[in-house]
Amino acid sequence: MLHQLYPQDKRKNRRLPAANLTAQLKTKQGLFTTWSDLSVSDFSLFGVALILPSEPELGRKITLRLLLTMDMGDIRINQIEAKIVNKLIREDGNWRVGLIFSSQSKQSSDTKAQLKRFQEILEKNEALVGRLSEIAV
Question: Is the pTM of this model over 0.85?
Fold first, then answer.
């Protein structure tokens, strides 16, 4: 069962496998804020796909924290807004949710630089995995 705001896949930008990339969802309850850990399916400069345990509301804006874990240290984006643009229920009962980052023009130059850095590292990782799989064959 597929639910989308944009019915066709019109990706102009390649998405990268999210090796060692994690996300946290910000939720507010009264005066208290909590961050919930989520699995990341893939990533691009313009959005991310997450795995959620419950059905999300299409069009809803959420705040995320992104963390790219590496041997030499972590790269983090502390708060980035995203909008839910599609959702798909998986066989395991979880939801694969597509998000686009909100207000690309309003993002700080630091956030844009961090997103670009995430993309470069994930591209290098994907190329390395590809080369290693060629050698193994």
Answer: no
